[in-house]
Write a structure and sequence with these properties.
single chain, about 200 residues, alpha+beta, six-stranded mixed beta sheet, five-stranded mixed beta sheet, 2 helices, 11 strands, about 20% helix, disordered N terminus, disordered C terminus
Amino acid sequence: MFARMNRLLTLVTAGVMLGVAPLAHAFFTLDFDENGNASISENGGAFVPLAGVLADDPSQTGIQLVLTYFLPEIVGNGTVQVLEPTGALSDAIRFTDANGALTGGSANRMIYYSDNTDGSTDLADTGFPANLDSGAQGGPVTETGPEGNNGFFYGFGAGQNNYNGISDSVPEPGTLLLLGIGLVLATPAMRRWAR
């Protein structure tokens, strides 16, 4: 009798564990920049590429293309403001859905806005939406690192989604190589022109 109860208890325990396993909270870490380059790690796994795209901004009136990252799972919505170490607004990340919800709902995309004060042409450099302060607000968070190579972190602690953003894009090695080749080829022409 005890053996039968023990077996039954084992089966019930296994059934509960199997039933609970799919309900366990998934989490991810997203590393991203202002030009749509990103990689994502789900549940502590290996990082894989996740490209950002220019898409309509459902959280603003009128059609405006903004840098959008489509997320692998539903997250809470709202806006997180990113500040310079001086306290000035530098960037913002907004979590929303296809309807532009910013309060009391869920999000399946993250929009990255940047200030566009340095004259760069990064994809995120669209400026800030007029409704930046509407809806749920997270943060703010502050950039770290030297200007030209700084970033920020937004997260909720262990076992939650973490967002690592690069605020100032650093040219990739391939871009630097092409720039160097262009300068080398242009030098003789520049010398002739200077004469």
